[in-house]
Predict the structure.
Amino acid sequence: MTVIKTNTNRVVADEPEDDHTHVQVVWFGPSQDGTHRKVFDGPLMPIEDYQEAVAWAVSMANQMTCPLYVVPLCGTDALTNERLQRAAATLSEQERNELRRFVVAQLAAIMRDCDDAMVRADAYDVLVDLRVVQP
């Protein structure tokens, strides 16, 4: 973990690991109920944009009252993101079906073309969860 101090604040950046696929900047706001702080999160970005996320957090830190956190995420964490879940809930039946077909096609391509056995195994597990293939 790297802590980057700015003039009036700091950015805490977790280092990405091999299984991280996304990165997100998260920060907290003041408590709205006297107990729990409000959580704000930036957009999910591909892990390739990690340095860009750190640079953005550093550029914004002095304008915030609380520290900013740069959080690398693995695929599972990225897919369980609350914002993604809310967006998926608003999809029409047709949009959900199109998204499912797209995801299944991408997972099948990963199983066919990827050289990494762990990635292929993860893709297979998701296809099993989606009930596309039988275990």
Notes: The two ends are 39 Å apart (CA to CA). The longest helix spans residues 93-113.
